[in-house]
Amino acid sequence: MQKKFTKAKKLVIVSCISLLLNGCASIMTGRYQAIPISSNPPGAKVIIDGNQTLTTPCTVQLLRKQNHVITIEKEGYESESVTLISVVSGAVAGNIILGGLIGTGIDAASGAAKKLTPESISVNLRPKVGPTGEKPKTVTERLNEIEQLKKEGKITEEEYLKLRENVLKEF
């Protein structure tokens, strides 16, 4: 025997499903968003909203409902700042379509109705330019210069080792 669903039964089922899905963005995405952060070169300091500091590469959990400023800096390089903007997420459409007014309010209050953009940060840090306009020398360039001074007899073996050690300590 086949059971028939009346319009009233269908309405009750749809209403129950709608109630269960209220606040679905809160359940599906949560209040925080994972943001991967990387830099070239790696090992740069990451400053989040002027407070928290980490080192690249890293992933940070940030509140979705507010904008954030991420600053990435490393000795010898120009610092870079990226602003993460909190925008309305597509998950809100689910609540609106299913008529979940309560769920939409919950998601809006918790921040789950939002997402941060960009969703990841990757920066190429530019070397700082010196006062005369030259780029700082790389470790290899500096070590090669010291090696050349030693070959030309302009520095002793002891001076060579000390200079080499100082260059390597800086990096």
Can you offer a commentary on this structure?
This protein has helices at 7-20, 24-28, 91-97, 101-110, 139-151, 157-170, and strands spanning 32-40, 45-48, 52-55, 58-63, 68-73, 80-88, 114-117, 121-124. The chain is built from 6 helices and 8 strands, in the order ααββββββααββαα. It is 37% helix and 27% strand. The chain has 171 residues and is of the alpha+beta class. The strands form 2 sheets. It has a 5-stranded antiparallel beta sheet, with no helix packed on it. It has a 3-stranded mixed beta sheet with strand order 4-1-8, with no helix packed on it. β5 and β6 (80-88) form a beta hairpin. It has 2 domains: 9-124, no CATH class; 139-170. The radius of gyration is 28 Å and the shape is rod-shaped. α5 (139-151) packs antiparallel against α6.
What is the C-alpha radius of gyration, as a whole number of Å?
A: 28 Å
Give unreliable regions as ranges.
Answer: 19-27
H/E series: HHEEEEEEHHEEHH
Beta-strand content estimate: 25-35%
Summarize the structure.
This protein has 171 residues and is an alpha+beta fold. It has helices spanning 7-20, 24-28, 91-97, 101-110, 139-151, 157-170, and strands at 32-40, 45-48, 52-55, 58-63, 68-73, 80-88, 114-117, 121-124.
Can you give keywords for this protein?
single chain; 171 residues; alpha+beta; 3-stranded mixed β-sheet
